[in-house]
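During the reporting period, our protein records have gained a structure token line. A sample record is set out beneath this paragraph:
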Amino acid sequence: MKISVVGTGYVGLVTGTCFAEMGNSVWCVDVDEEKINKLKNGIIPIYEPGLESMVKENFNMGRLKFTTNINEALEHTDICFIAVGTPMGEDGSADLQYVKKVAENIGKGMTHHMYIVDKSTVPVGTAKKVRETVQAELDKRNSDLTFDVISNPEFLKEGTAVGDCMKPDRIVVGTDNRNAENVMRELYGTYLRNTENFIFMDIASAEMTKYTANAMLATKISFMNEISNICELVGADVNKVRRGIGSDSRIGYSFIYAGCGYGGSCFPKDVQALIKTSCLHDYNPKILQAVENVNHEQKKVISKKVMSRFGDDLSGRKFAVWGLAFKPDTDDMRESPAITIINDLTKAGAEIAAYDPKAVNEAKGCYLKDNEKVTYVESKYDAVKEADALILVTEWKEFRQPDFDEIVKLLKHPIIFDGRNQYDKDSMRKRSIEYHQIGVRES
């Protein structure tokens, strides 16, 4: 099939590349000329396991093309995916300016019937706005061209996005006519043999499904973090509680790990956007508000533990931070708990030695660029040299079984603050390591 994808961020680039991998002819479009030139030269703007080699192979085979000219892409394709960003506005709502601009350009440039697919995470009612925008441009041209607007939310997880795209657990499609449904069935038929996981619905329900999924997962995280805080107060161990409730098939183990809060490009933005949507309809979403509030406070738990141990004035102290990305296997630092933790500690006077396998450039160039008290090192052991304590923020695989004897030798004090509860407290005690966890009362 002939496909164009507008937007070459995580969603757009992964989606377009995976479509090409299955033999489709794909045009990826972006207004950023520098990014497009880099992609043509095999330089990938994001870190995502397995993506770089797939992009290069499909580009070299001619199945994947990159351009800044949307008209060129529209001329050669029948299906156009909108996969641009919908950043959070100042009031918490999803900013749809980029989606609307793409819709406007489609209306200006389309030359035949188009299936326009909203892949971006957008609030309910966006498809209607896209349809109105496209039609307004066609009316200006006195054109009688036809088009369909489809909602097809993405459910990719950063770090496993390629696998999620190639082997999806479900495909959700919102459409209002059978022809559009058949087109989507043909497109995704090679990805999903089990037709039960092809879920067709009305457009508004499809748009709502994406927000609901992310809000539900965020709710599980904040709920468990709330429980972890109660565990500390009453003397319970949240790790044992997690095992006790996770064995219940109605609950399960996914997303019930206590930690230092969630981040990323989806959960924070989508929860706040759903809150805003609710308020616009005169409804007060109390649970969603609580989810957001708990997460905001949870990002401060580690820095509070550090200051409880070392005092509010951290001048002259140095702390090693392992992990900057909001989760493993990505360089994405958007809303990462590491940002809050590091800024809180440096405001109190501390120096930070930070290490992350992939996200250092993001920290230097954007999220911590103005924080002069942060030094970036080449290895996890370089970070702990002469540090007063080690702080684990992101659960990268290389942090799971480090050489604790080496860590004890390099640290000024054998102290670890674990923001992800990765280590066994009994094992830490045997090594004479002072170990601080989330959701476990300090002994």
Summary: The longest helix spans residues 203-234. The CA atoms of residues 115 and 148 lie 5 Å apart. The radius of gyration is 24 Å.
